[in-house]
TrEMBL record:
GO biological process: molybdate ion transport
Keywords attached to this entry: Molybdenum
Ranges where the Mop domain occurs: 2-56
Name the UniProt record assigns to this protein: Putative molybdenum-pterin-binding protein
Organism from which the protein derives: Mesorhizobium metallidurans STM 2683
Amino acid sequence: MKISARNILKGTIVEIVKGATTSHVLIDIGGSVVTASITNEAVADLQLEKGGRPMP
């Protein structure tokens, strides 16, 4: 399945792996884990944290 930045996935953040400029956000969406690659700035702006739920 192909998804874009406009997709909203309902789930729980299980891990955030920060790199120099990009973070990998692992989201459990009902037993399947997907990984979103977003900027570190976006992680901060969206106030994402482990155990949280991504919001639009």
